[in-house]
Write a structure and sequence with these properties.
alpha/beta; 2 domains
Length: 419
């Protein structure tokens, strides 16, 4: 699939390295010495990383999985695992020996709790880890780097309809509502800026970025678990915002397809067409969240909501919840009911075209259904819990917001009548 590295990209096993921070010597893992092209996946034990590794192995690509978590299952033939933190330059350098393509998926801070309580760690992994990966690519003379970004680098709560790469810009960093999106935007720009960097001995580093929305698939538990928990908490007992709200989702197999196509588009055969480019990737469909989640509603025994509440009240609730959670963090750790970022992603229209990926990468998304994912989730996912207290707190904060707005409206009305 990928070209073999040219002779300028070859290293002899045991060659000495003098660059500061690099190991004095290293060896190619024995399992991979007979293989052809090789790819490394940071965050390789994650959902998307594991799916990507399977697809690469099926195409005859040797794979190195790098992740700070412990390996919990047997590796498939052709894969090698390195337990390492992406911020650890020496270990990332060692793991990448003999690699010709890096898929940088490792990140931190996506979930609500992480977004609010571990800001320094989010920055050090998402920005610091990306800096390490870019530097390793240059020092190891790795010619291709594909970065897994997010649509949140351009979306922070303002409606976007059919946005494309040419018409939507990065959200100003000071306007991002969470550290995860802010650091992912910084990291994406670092990766794209590195495109065309000269490699020692000749050649150039080619880079691109993939921007997915929410990811789903048969073994995906993070997004569906969060949605199911929010249903248990009562957030979906009412319909929030405009009934016509539309968003995109992407099935993991479509996302994997996009990553592999992006790697091919960073080769001489394609004239490096993807070099320095970012691509929106989704299923090619715009869906209403409540309609799209119908299989999950039904299987969990809930009816689709019919009571309507304006979304700005939920936004106010999310702001108050974040403030309270931050204030109490030094005393007690309380999982956030909902964050502004989650509220935006669920209840503000933001849709993106995939025309550029189709034209330049040859990306053709396949049609998938949420039903199979729900079946797997109910078998493997966490058991429902009793969220009575959190439901009560959510409704209490929402009621407080309504009262506050009512008071404000009364003050404005009285002022106008007196004028």
């Amino acid at each position: 699939m990928f070209r073999q590295r040219e002779d300028i990209l070859q290293r002899k096993s045991g060659e000495k390295v003098t660059h500061r921070g690099e190991p004095s010597e290293w060896r190619i893992p024995r399992q991979m010495r007979s293989l052809g092209p090789k790819a490394m996946i940071t965050g390789g034990l994650g959902y998307c990383g594991s799916q990507l590794s399977r697809a690469l192995l099926q195409e005859g690509i040797g794979v190195v999985l790098l992740d700070r978590r412990e390996l919990q299952s047997e590796l498939p033939k052709g894969a090698v695992f390195f337990q390492a933190d992406v911020r650890d330059y020496e270990k990332v350098f060692q793991a990448s020996e003999g690699i010709d393509t890096i898929f940088h998926l490792a990140s931190f801070g996506l979930s609500g709790g992480e977004q609010l309580k571990k800001i320094k760690e989010i920055d050090s992994i998402n920005v610091g880890g990306t800096k390490v990966v870019i530097d390793v690519c240059k020092r190891q003379r790795i010619p291709r780097l594909i970065y897994t970004s997010t649509v949140n680098v351009v979306f922070a709560g303002e409606t976007i309809v059919d946005g494309d790469e040419a018409t939507v810009s990065y959200v100003p960093l000071e306007q991002q509502v969470n550290e995860y999106s802010r650091t992912k935007a910084i990291a994406e720009q670092m990766v794209l800026a590195a495109n065309g960097s000269l490699l020692p001995g000749g050649g150039k580093l080619r880079t691109c970025a993939i921007r997915p929305p929410g990811i789903y698939g048969p073994e995906e538990l993070q997004h569906l678990s969060r949605l199911a928990r929010n249903m248990e908490r009562g957030f979906f007992h009412v319909r929030l915002g405009d009934p016509g709200i539309l968003t995109n989702w992407v099935h993991v197999k479509n996302l994997v397809q996009a990553h592999i196509l992006a790697a091919k588009a960073l080769t001489p055969e394609t004239d490096y067409i993807a070099g320095g480019q970012a691509y929106f990737i989704n299923d090619g469909e715009e869906v209403n969240l409540f309609e799209w989640l119908s299989p999950l509603f039904e299987r969990l025994g809930y009816q689709k909501p019919w009571i309507h509440i304006p979304v700005f009240l939920v936004h106010l609730t999310a702001v108050v919840v974040e403030k309270v959670q931050t204030l109490l963090l030094p005393i007690v750790e309380i999982p956030p009911l909902i964050t502004r970022n989650e509220m935006h992603n669920m209840w503000v229209t933001h849709t993106f075209k995939i025309d550029k990926a189709q034209a330049q990468l040859g990306y053709v998304p396949k049609k998938y259904s949420l039903d199979d994912c729900v079946d797997h989730f109910l078998k493997k996912g966490p058991r429902p819990r009793n969220f009575f207290l959190q439901k009560y707190l959510f409704l209490l904060v929402l009621l407080t917001g309504i009262i506050a707005l009512s008071v404000k409206f009364t003050q404005v009305r009285d002022f106008l009548l007196d004028s």
